[in-house]
Design a protein that fits this description.
The protein is mostly beta strands. The protein has one domain (24-315): Glycosyl hydrolase domain, family 43 (Tachylectin-2, Chain A). It has helices spanning 265-268, 306-315, and strands spanning 17-18, 33-44, 47-56, 61-68, 75-76, 83-85, 96-104, 107-115, 119-126, 132-134, 143-148, 157-163, 174-179, 186-192, 206-209, 214-216, 219-230, 233-243, 251-254, 276-284, 287-294, 298-305. The strands form five sheets. The chain has a five-stranded mixed β-sheet with strand order 6-10-9-8-7, with no helix packed on it. Strands 15, 16, 17, 18 and 19 form a five-stranded antiparallel β-sheet that branches. A four-stranded antiparallel β-sheet has the order 1-22-21-20. Strand 11 (143-148) and strand 12 (157-163) form a beta hairpin. The radius of gyration is 18 Å and the shape is globular. The N and C termini lie far apart (39 Å). The structure holds beta-D-mannopyranose. Residues 38, 97-98, 168, 236, 272, 275, 277, 293, 296 line the site of beta-D-mannopyranose. Beta-D-mannopyranose binds next to strand 7.
């Protein structure tokens, strides 16, 4: 497996740089779609597989499976994922969006924002991205951005999430919960909140976890989105934080400046303007390829070095 990669442009002074032919997946990539964005990919067999958020032309939000040999060219199913019953009777979903995927022990786990009397966190597992088994919702509504850690920590599954409301939530901090069995969730702990506007404005309205946290020698690298409320509405940027390996609710560092903000046309214009929304990352040694949704319309990629991100976060820590 080789993750998608482009080397850092010579004149680039940023920590992250964009793929030169973004977006890698555009809105009409499958016959039924109005938009494809906020999607998650993982290494699978000799290549990659993913779960993609595809809103159809009735603007029904759903998740679709996809496959790729290089991480750039994707074959996405035109039909949404059909769930089978997992560790409970099948739960009806009014809608499904913003998936995340990770491998834990013996299978791939998918979490997403599941419409169950409002947004909640849905969970399913798959071995092959063909059959999916839906489990209990993790939390009561309203909640979004449920992101699993990629391994059990002290015997428990651990998930980040962002309690919210039933609308375009104007607040939101990141919490963490534990489960012994992927069915019952508890030990809810605060991880990180919004920042004072004058200190770090881009993350002063709400924040939410993005890709699956990445284990490093310095702690869990948590890439997240932060939102500022402006005269033109919300603006979504990308940041990073580091938390303790053993007690992941213990935040060690978090970046005051953003790592990537919506500044390219395809991030500033689309169905929702000014959104970069990271949902997945592929890692190979020190290299990282981050998949993010752009303007709620398309899927984009940016690259960086994990060591440089960590250095940046430590150097620019919000106290
Ligand atoms: C959030 C979710 C995301 C979306 C973002 C920006 O509430 O709906 O899927 O990318 O808003 O519109």
């Amino acid at each position: 497996m080789n993750i998608p990669w482009q080397s850092k442009p010579r004149n680039c002074t940023e920590v992250l740089w964009r793929h030169t032919s973004n977006p890698i997946i555009s809105r009409y990539h499958i016959p039924s779609s109005n938009s494809i964005f906020n999607s998650a990919v993982v290494p699978f067999n000799d290549g990659f597989a993913g779960v993609f958020r595809c809103d159809d032309r009735s603007i029904r939000m759903n998740i679709h499976a996809g496959f790729s040999s290089d991480g750039l060219n994707w074959k996405i199913e035109d039909q949404p994922i059909q769930m089978k019953a997992g560790n409970t009777d099948l739960i009806h979903s009014d809608y499904r969006y913003d998936p995340r995927v990770t491998w834990i022990e013996d299978r791939y786990w998918v979490t997403w924002c599941n419409g169950y009397h409002g947004p909640s966190i849905g969970i399913a597992y798959t071995y092959d991205f063909k059959e999916f088994f839906q489990c209990e919702n993790a939390f009561l509504p309203f909640n979004r951005n449920g992101v699993l850690f990629p391994e059990k920590i002290n015997g428990n599954y651990v998930m980040l999430s962002r309690p919210s409301d039933n609308g375009h939530t104007p607040f939101g901090d990141i919490f963490l919960s534990r489960s012994p069995d992927m069915k019952y969730w508890g030990e809810h702990r605060f991880v990180m909140g919004v920042t004072p506007f004058q200190e770090s404005g881009w993350q002063s309205t709400k924040i939410g976890a993005g890709p699956i946290p990445i284990k490093t020698d310095d702690g869990w690298l948590i890439i997240y989105h932060g939102v500022i409320n402006t005269c033109n509405g919300f603006r979504y940027s990308m940041g990073a934080a580091i938390s303790d390996l053993d007690q992941p609710e213990k935040l060690l560092y978090r970046s005051r400046p953003y790592l990537l903000a919506p500044t390219e046309l395809y991030e500033m214009t689309g169905d929702v303007q000014n959104v970069v929304f990271p949902c997945a990352a592929l890692v190979e040694g020190d290299k990282i390829a981050i998949y993010y949704g752009a303007a709620d319309t398309s899927v984009c990629l940016c690259y960086g070095y994990i060591s440089e991100i960590i250095q940046f976060v430590k150097k620019n820590n919000v106290e």
